[in-house]
Amino acid sequence: MSVLETQAQKVRDSAKKLLADATAQTVIGYADEGVDGLCVPVFITDVKDVGRLVWNRRSVPNLASYLIGRKGKTAIVAKPCDARAVVNLIVENQIKRDDVHIIGMDCPGMTDAAGAALHACETCQVNTSPVFDERIENAEVKPVSPEKRDAERGLDENLARFTKEMEKCILCFSCRQACYGCYCQTCFMDRGVPDWHPESPDMGAKMLYHLGRAMHLAGRCVECGACENACASGVDVRYLIREVTGFVKELYGYDTGLSLEDQPAMLTYQPDDREVGFLGGEAHG
Amino acid sequence: MSQTNTADFTPTIVAFLCNWCSYAGADLAGTGRQQYPPSIRVVRVPCSGRINPIYILKALVDGADGVMVSGCHPGDCHYLAGNYYARRRFTVLKKLLTVAGVNPDRVHFTWVSASEGARFAQVVTDVTDKVRALGESEYKSRRGGERA
Ligand code: SF4
Ligand code: SF4
Ligand code: SF4
Ligand code: FES
Question: Under an 8 A CB cutoff, do B101 and A244 touch?
């Protein structure tokens, strides 16, 4: 049996046990019932259905947002990035620690239909779950490579890149819907006053959406790549968010979803925080 | 990038001013007959912590050449810590704007108290000079549609 199939069997065994002894009322996991082998989310509530649960290189969706608003205890099959999302949802008081059972999967990285590594997985920094109730190991998962940030570019280049990405965007909001962190009941883009999103979505609306969303995900993004995987227009959805999240880490020493105790960087302050970019303060590096 | 990069170009700068300090500082500059350029459009807010970063983004996307934000000095916020939270947001926002191609000299954050009328005038003069030197906003020409 392959290592992945062993992991899958452990998921099924665990689900069976959790449901049988009523530790959890529901197990959220992956079923191989999508198109081109792409796994879809499945909610198992009955022991006789655990056979539908799978685990493979196409267990792509981030399931964390399904935990919001659930009643009773829910177990979740979580890739490390999804587990970070779960942790951040707990830290942000969207769900309770006691209401969730994290089945933390060691992750070999996910692929597209052709078997090529997904963009987010290529640069993954956390491939074992930081917080879990049980860990399902995979001995083939190797330690991660050092973090890669984009090289600094000049302003003109930055502007050209931003414009190029925005030209591709059709404002379908799939990236927002896929993101665990975009759980707002009403997104600012759906508000009428002021008209963040005019009837004819122009360049300005696209810029505003992506800049606004990047601000909202700064220090909250868990680098799962769900947003970019969801985009059918080939937009590099994540690069702004990656830069600001890296900046938050650099400045405030905060990494999202690694600990249940840490205060999220943007929800706290220090009286002597650095004033990078302020009038008379230090310059941006 | 810009055709308006001349000394007589008056940039449009949206200024978000905290009611309890910088707005009063602006008043004091006025009653004290301090001169400063007619470039700012003031939006009075109850606290720098009340400024949602998307207001600043919208000002820029909608064609402002610059944005200036001023609140109470650290430690002096009327609501105790609004400006501390704001400081983190603004710091990150400025980084984001740089990555998205906005010249950092267009966006300025500072602290001005109610008693600093002369400083307020100086800040507006400095900010205006910096923005004027850059000419029209990089984003202006990227705006499609009718909205100005
Ligand atoms: S912004 Fe994208 S990569 Fe980050 S948490 Fe949301 S979906 Fe995942
Ligand atoms: S973009 Fe911002 S406002 Fe919209 S759903 Fe995401 S976090 Fe909420
Ligand atoms: S970036 Fe892609 S997924 Fe997001 S709104 Fe634009 S087209 Fe849709
Ligand atoms: S009251 Fe002035 S910054 Fe908070």
Answer: no
| The total number of structural domains that make up chain A | 2
Q: Looking at the structure, do residues A121 and A216 belong to the same domain, yes or no?
A: no
Candidates A168, A174, A176, A227: which one to mutate for ligand 3, based on the most atoms within 8 Å of Cβ?
Answer: A174
| pLDDT tens digits, one per residue of B64-121 | 999 999 999 999 999 999 999 999 999 999 999 999 999 999 999 999 999 999 999 9
Burial classification of residue A263, based on how many CB atoms lie within 10 Å of its CB (0-12 exposed, 13-18 middle, 19 or more buried): exposed
Residues of A in contact with B74 (CB under 8 A): 271
Amino acid at the residue B90: F
Q: What is the ipTM of this complex?
A: 0.91
Cα–ligand 2 centroid distance for A64 (angstroms): 16
Chosen domain end from A82, A104, A136: A136
Question: What pTM, to 2 d.p., does this model score?
Answer: 0.93
Does A221 sit in the ligand 1 pocket, CB within 6 Å? Answer: yes
Pairwise CB contact (< 8 Å): A215 & B145: no
CA–CA–CA angle B64, B118, B107 (5° rounding): 25
- C-alpha torsion sign, points A64, A65, A66, A69: positive
The answer to whether residue B91 is domain-embedded is yes
